[in-house]
Design a protein that fits this description.
Radius of gyration of chain A: 19 Å
Number of helices of chain A: 6
CATH topology of chain A: Methane Monooxygenase Hydroxylase, Chain G, domain 1
Helix content of chain A: over 70%
Largest sheet of chain A: none
Oligomer: homodimer
């Protein structure tokens, strides 16, 4: 590869990085707003997340097209190739996190319609941890920091534990049914959305490990990155 | 690209296609077994799905490594490049469908523990349609058949409708609570897993459309391929 070509590819990659971070920041903000909309019973805040998702969808498509163009025109190899493939996967995870924020925001709309009912679960710590993992996974991407990426993967267990606690609370509450059970179910499902956000953050961290080391770090334990919908 | 190089790449691509189909067949079988395990209350059948998932996970990692190797060594362009990228995404969707089959199988284990309780929902038609979509999306991949792929995308609405019917039944049943509400919730969630299987089949079909036309067909309507966790 000539120096000029390499410089041009380097510039494209810098540009990709910037766009991933912009998308990441937007997605992070959506997660924050969606969770806050539940506790604040604020349907307008929830609507911002729901309506703003089309932008995230469009940004994902644009970013993917850019990656494909770089692959086609610059034919990167070795670490550059891994980088582009990694960006495509991170892009996909960010878009899915955006979808999960929409799901949470939809539950916030439901919660807002019954302002006087007490919230049955405290999502605070779980949401904090999931958002922290997302932020850290994006930091590990910027700095290609393998150690930080491994830390994110390790933290996924914490979120799983928190989800189990909420699951336990759900089992207790459903046996002494409140007046509107359906709302309880939806509010319970928020803990699953948060858990999946943490899973996607873990995926991003794993992609960074792949970018840096060239090794695929998925499925270390059979259950690690499984989408956990019907767990015990 | 010289003729020899092209022949070699062609062979690699044929080999990839074979492996995607093998993985697809295995995933299809897992979906079939998982749904059957619920109605048959057969925990052993469910265990086959749960225990067999490690193989699917490994096959996904192997297939992805093969794609990366081809990208690095053969530097495919145009339709070949789109094909490899498409295979990477289809591979990912198949693995996630495998995870969803595990979730369904886990609910089957729960259902098997209460043999005499009537099943609250009839998943038959929804499961049939989701499996049909998966099969057809894989057929559209083999034949690079754009029309068949579009048909799969269109059929996703049917599955969404069926899920709404089950959701309605769930709302009715939860207001006249059965003795074990938690089981009802889990059994209800099976309809979501099935819906997401159909979503992934739709993703596969969209990847085929991309392979054939070079156009990204996602997010046609803002809600189309959203992961629907908390829908109304």
């Amino acid at each position: 590869m000539s120096t000029t070509v390499r410089v041009r590819l380097g510039r494209k990659i810098e540009d990709l990085k910037k766009k991933v971070l912009e998308l990441g920041a937007q997605v992070e903000e959506h997660v924050r707003l969606a969770v806050q909309a539940i506790s604040a019973r604020d349907p307008l805040m929830a609507a911002r997340v729901i309506d703003g998702d089309v932008e995230i969808d469009q940004a994902e498509v644009d970013l993917e097209e850019e990656c494909l163009e770089i692959l086609a025109l610059h034919q990167p190899v070795a670490i550059d190739l891994r980088y582009i493939v990694g960006v495509m996967k991170i892009n996909n995870d960010l878009e899915r996190i955006g979808d999960l924020a929409v799901n949470i925001a939809e539950t916030a709309v439901l919660a807002a319609s019954r302002k006087h009912a007490e919230l049955p679960f405290d999502y605070g710590p779980m949401a904090e941890t999931a958002r922290f993992m997302l932020k850290k996974s994006l930091d590990s991407f910027v700095n290609l920091d393998e150690k930080a990426a491994f830390d994110v993967c390790a933290q996924d267990d914490e979120v799983d534990y928190m989800k189990h606690v909420i699951h336990r609370q759900f089992e207790e509450k459903i046996n002494t049914p409140p007046p509107r059970l359906e709302a309880l179910v939806h509010l319970f499902l928020v803990s699953r959305h948060l858990e999946r956000i943490a899973d996607h953050a873990t995926n991003i961290a794993e992609d960074v490990i792949y970018m840096v080391t060239g090794e695929i770090h998925r499925h270390r334990g059979a259950l690690d990155v499984r989408e956990t919908e019907a767990e015990k």
